[in-house]
Amino acid sequence: MKICLRKYEILQTGKEDTLEIQYLGTAAAEGWPALFCNCEICKRARAVGGKELRTRTQAVVDQKILIDFPPDSYTHALNYSLQLGKVQHLLITHSHMDHFFPVELIHRHEHFGHHAEGMLHIYGNEAVEKAFYDAVLIDRFKVHPLDEAVRFVRLVPFADFTADGYHIVPVPADHDRRETCYIYVIEKDGKNILYGHDTGLNLSAEAWECIFKRKYALISLDATMGRKHSEGYHMGLPDVLTFVKTLQEHGCIGQDTVKVINHFSHNGEMTHEELEAFAEEHGLTAAYDGMKVQM
Ligand SMILES: [Zn+2]
Ligand SMILES: [Zn+2]
Ligand SMILES: [Zn+2]
Asked: Of 5, 74, 184, 255, which is most buried with the most CB atoms under 10 A?
């Protein structure tokens, strides 16, 4: 029997650490290795294990602000000893299933999960709202109404809000045009995170303007397409470099900024080892499941 230990390291930037992000899952929708896939990247991932295995994309800031809710949320809670019953704010980027798997939210009802603290606020767009109610309002769950445990908050582009002392700005992404997908600016004590999953480079002028207003302690960029260039919707590494250069030109990032690439697909045709080598060469950090960054 082979057991892969999912150890994580903490990357420290050397400054006084007041803000932490943990990457709980770092794969695109199909997972890594992909559920039904026998390509070389997936076969190698199964053989090697460790950082070459990825669950679907989710992150948590200071264990308080959860970002996205994939089908792997339960696994993440087990692997990283998360106290999800304490989390009261959940930012959803968009309704794709690797970012929002709402049926699991029924388990915040007192019948299934005892003594969860306060209300879980879910922030998202119109498609996320519909998916949420479609999942939790079915007949079978009517005996367990979520009104006392979960509250949905519909977001408006650029309409900032405060959650537990974190200042949050939802910025429209370049992703599925059938809904208003969001990337997020999250600020605490003057430190900004730009959480950019899922998005391509074709942001609106208004979105760029909003992003350019700040200097970032950490940026987290979509690298789904790996070595390939993307025309939009997602990014590959060539597009990530363009994104980084654009932020540099506008004074939004400096020497201290942690530049993370994340949300990987086997279709990007690079192993984690290769992504790490690329990242090192370009001053980036390739995310892996469990990675924590303190800034
Ligand atoms: Zn995704
Ligand atoms: Zn594959
Ligand atoms: Zn997506």
From this structure: 184
Q: For residue 79, report the distance from its CA to the centre of ligand 2, in Å.
A: 24
CA of 94 to the centre of ligand 3 (A): 7
Dihedral sign for Cα atoms in the order 266, 271, 272, 275: negative
146 contacts: CB under 8 Å, gap ≥ 6: 105, 106, 108, 109, 136
Q: For every one of its 295 residues, what pLDDT tens digit does the chain have, with 9 covering 90 and above?
A: 445 445 556 777 666 668 999 999 999 999 999 999 999 999 999 999 999 999 999 999 999 999 999 999 999 999 999 999 999 999 999 999 999 999 999 999 988 999 999 999 999 999 999 999 999 888 888 888 888 899 999 999 999 999 999 999 999 999 999 999 999 999 999 999 999 999 999 999 999 999 999 999 999 999 999 999 999 999 999 999 999 999 999 999 999 999 999 999 999 999 999 999 999 999 999 999 999 999 9
Cα 89 to ligand 3 centre (Å) = 21
Cβ contact 6:288 at 8 Å: no
pTM, rounded to two decimals: 0.95
**Ligand 1 midpoint to CA 121 (Å):** 21
User: What domains sit in the chain, N to C, each tagged with a CATH number?
Assistant: 18-294 (3.60.15.10)
Strand-pairing partners, residue 31, are none
How far apart are the C-alpha atoms of 190 and 295, rounded to whole Å? 11
Residue 220: burial class (beta carbons within 10 Å; 0-12, 13-18, 19+): buried
**Edge-to-edge order in the sheet of strand 191-196:** 161-163, 166-172, 182-188, 191-196, 218-222, 258-262, 285-286
Using an 8 Å Cβ cutoff, are 74 and 104 in contact? Answer: yes
d(CA 23, CA 38): 26
